[in-house]
């Protein structure tokens, strides 16, 4: 029996307890966050830097009980007080089914998570090897391949940051295996490789708010395709004084 999605929908509470003209509530995508429905397999957040995709993902993660710098829900630590108040103003709609596994992978704070795991001496699920004793990309892949067990709800913030194109394709394979094992993902990304995953929904964060888009209609796809098809001319144009 299909039990996903574990996470069905997220909305901003319209209760007047926040200042609509203050960050992060003045971001268009946050302001228009009203009944965003998640795909049962993978939901991608895309948009320019500053569009709010990581802010919303962080808010969802904290509302679900994760720590601000990632890891499992048992990873309760914080090295920098930079969390927005958004999580306290989100309404999450969940299904009757509960995931058996959880993980929040956040590229910008993954080094801090690795240090925390070393400090507490808990490396079970990471191959019993310090994440600092691997390259950044190898550590990310260790989470995907070794740590995540399936039947899980997984939130990833820019996982491609440490991955080569080849490793991004390997990550796509690992994500698919976990989806087949009953998992649901919400991923904020700039990667046209990850975005190609077919069993997904792509949500664009921009100056007008939120909208669902096709893969072929994303800038990630169109700009990458145009660049690769005519890279010499594009580089020449980019380097031109005009």
Major beta sheet, strand line-up: 5-6-7-3-8-9
Global geometry:
globular
Give the DSSP E fraction (strand runs of 2 or more residues).
Answer: 15-25%
Q: Which fold name is given in CATH as the topology? A: Rossmann fold
Second-tier CATH architecture:
3-Layer(aba) Sandwich
The number of distinct β-strands equals: 9
Which series of helices and strands comes N to C?
Answer: EHEEHEEHHEHEEEHH
Terminal CA distance? 60 Å
> Helical residue percent?
25-40%
Question: At the first level of CATH, what is the class?
Answer: Alpha Beta
Whole-number count of domains: 1
Question: Which structural traits does this protein have?
Answer:
alpha/beta, 31% helix, Rossmann fold, 242 residues, single chain, 7 helices
Could you characterize the architecture of this molecule?
The chain is α/β, with parallel strands linked by helices and 242 residues long. The protein has one domain (7-239): Rossmann fold (3-Layer(aba) Sandwich). The chain contains seven helices and nine strands. It has helices at 28-31, 53-63, 110-120, 136-147, 165-180, 219-229, 231-239; strands at residues 7-12, 36-37, 42-47, 90-94, 101-106, 152-157, 184-188, 200-206, 209-213. A six-stranded mixed beta sheet has the order 5-6-7-3-8-9, with helices on both faces. Helix 4 (136-147) runs parallel beside helix 5 (165-180) and helix 6 (219-229) packs across helix 7. The protein is globular. The model has no long low-confidence stretch (mean pLDDT 88).
